[in-house]
Design a protein that fits this description.
8-stranded mixed β-sheet, alpha/beta, 294 residues, 7 helices, Rossmann fold
Length: 294
Amino acid sequence: MGFLDNQVALVTGGGRGLGRSIALALAARGASVAIDDVYRDEAGVSAADATVRAIEESGGTGLALSEDVTTVDGAAAMVEATVQKFGRLDMLVLCAGNTTRGRLHELDEAQWDSLMSLHLKGHFLACKMALPHMLAQNSGRIVTVGSRGAFFQVPANKQVPRDERQPPSAAYSAAKAGILGMTTTLAVELWETGITVNCLMPSASTQLFPDTKPRMVGGVPASNSLDPDDIAPTVEFLCGPDAADISGRIFFASGGDVILYGNQLDLAGSRMIRKDGRWTADELSQVLGPLAGL
């Protein structure tokens, strides 16, 4: 018996990479899992079908879907098929994503729109369609998927060389930052309900980032593993009974590392100046330069 027995999960992007690892882990804990993934390999094999087969071979129950989560009709059909098959929806894990590389002035409108559509609009529509079912039962777990790439590390000042690593793109960072903002606001909207909303920031080697290497980021030592299977237990926890009162929080997971981040805009670790009255630009030049490390 698992602690997710009689529960139903829907995992977008659940056919490959991180989504597949999470779907298999939730099924192993007893959940019935619907996997929505539009990817098919060169032979035409559906990634969602392959993951469901793996679930069923392990004695679990799954449902393969291939709806487009960036459209109203696709998101609605995905949720309705899950509820029709299993009778309810308890967990929504939003792993569907894409990326593109290039500096902002090199990106075209289609590349920008593609990132915003799958990440932000996909999160919005999936939540919009799932929430009526969760609200009706006054329970549910939503796990969004962000990234440390939302806030790429900036050197202390222009005299400090930047990290040689190049962010994937400003579009990817903007989309992931939007997910962080959506997560915290949606958690507040649902605060008086039995529904929680938390954000997972993973670091793993997947088909989206196959060349990921262990490295220190934001003061976090390089991970001891980039296996996406190592990240799934954090999602299991967030979907389980012990996380019923945790909402609006951001978790990083990679290998054996898990971080629960504090409030993004908390003053701790920041610097504040105050005076009676209005600052002048000349006064700020005298004060903010040294604060910025100049």
